[in-house]
Amino acid sequence: MRKPFMTGNWKMNKTVGEGAELVKALADMVWGVEDVTIAVCPPFTALQPIGQALRNTNIALGAQGMFWKTEGAYTGEVSPGMLKDVGCTYVILGHSERRGRFGVPDKDVTEELITVFGDNDATVNKKALFALDQGLKPIVCCGELLSERQAGNTDAVVVSQIKAALQGITAEQMADVTLAYEPVWAIGTGEVCEADEADRVCGVVRSTVVELYGDCVAQATIIQYGGSVKPDNIAGLIAKENIDGGLVGGASLKAADFAALVKAASSRA
Ligand code: 13P
Q1: How far apart are CA 112 and CA 152, in angstroms?
Q2: Residue 239 Cα to ligand 1 middle (Å)
Q3: What's the gap in Å between 173 CA and the centre of ligand 1?
Q4: Is 182 assigned a catalytic role?
Q5: Angle, nearest 10°, between helix axes 44-53 and 16-30?
Q6: DSSP type of residue 3
Q7: Conformational region of residue 152, where left means phi above 0, alpha means psi within -120 to 50, and beta covers everything else
Q8: Exposed / middle / buried, residue 269 (Cβ in 10 Å: 0-12, 13-18, 19+)
Q9: Which residue has the least CA distance to atom 2 on ligand 1?
Q10: What angle do CA 36, 90, 166 make, to 5 degrees?
Q11: Catalytic annotation present for 95
């Protein structure tokens, strides 16, 4: 039986003070929940103090990205060792927003501008390998654009992103890898992927893991769904065979909402 995993991706939200307030309230609300893995991923600026605030709670800390070197002349980047130093267990890798793939068009953040800084299949793979090497657990994201879905390419996109990200990762290391299916068109749009379809694509992700590592590893791999997960749609999603939890943006910014998601996952466990 896979343990459900709910991760809050705060994205570019929360000052130190706001984040501390959020996790204080959240920690009280989810205290005692042992059958769900719970993590929050604040922005880099808040990791250290939030890590402190999470001590003696059942909530783990994660980061939203990292670089594939231990140290050096990489201006603006952060190493896995630095993330572990402030208490991180997890790191989100290959999020569509880091790949420059957006569900909501933004005239100030065009694909052309953002990809200069962004991830691609090759960097996601390098980061995943290095995270594992350094003892951080990657949450590796995949997902299709609306145009790719409309062209009937959803499965092909997801399979190719997963295969690229996992290249060189061993079956043993897969125990520390979480996969997240996040259809880009459902991120921050309020448009959730229907539970049956989300489950189907998470099933495609699992089949890809079967192909690469065999059934045993695939049955143990945690696969999250992400994209407008809210308290009012979590029950349908978490009930599905291939959905083991959520990678949650907007609803992780309010303690009561994220706690409700954790409790929904707990009732399935
Ligand atoms: P929303 O829950 O705000 O749609 O964001 C999902 C997401 O991208 C989490 O990583």
Answers
A1: 24
A2: 19
A3: 26
A4: yes
A5: 40
A6: P
A7: left
A8: middle
A9: 249
A10: 105
A11: yes
With a 6 A CB cut-off, is 118 part of the ligand 1 pocket?
no
Q: How many residues does the chain have?
A: 269
Cβ of 65 closer than 6 Å to ligand 1, yes or no, is: no
The domain spans of the chain are: 5-268
Active-site annotation holder among 18, 95, 172, 197: 95
Tell me which amino acid residue 51 is. Answer: G
Domain 5-268 homologous superfamily, CATH: Aldolase class I (3.20.20.70)
Percent of the chain residues topping a pLDDT of 70: 98
Q: In this structure, are residues 95 and 64 in contact, taking their beta carbons and an 8 Å threshold?
A: yes
Using CA atoms, how far residue 168 sits from 29, 52, 99, 212, in Å, is 40, 34, 21, 10
Orientation angle between helical segments 16-30 and 255-268, nearest 10 degrees: 30
- Spatial neighbors of 13 by CB under 8 A, at least 6 apart, are 43, 253
- pTM, to two decimals: 0.97
Tokens of 191: 């448009």
Contact 49, 119 (CB under 8 A): no
pLDDT of residue 104: 81
The number of angstroms, rounded, from the C-alpha of 20 to the middle of its chain's C-alpha atoms is 21
Tokens linked to 174: 């897969």
pLDDT tens for 62-75 read 999 999 999 999 99
Does the beta carbon of 247 sit less than 6 angstroms from any atom of ligand 1?
Answer: yes
- Given a cut of 50, the residues of the chain with pLDDT beneath it are none
* Mutation choice for ligand 1 from 102, 141, 182, CB with most ligand atoms inside 8 A: 182
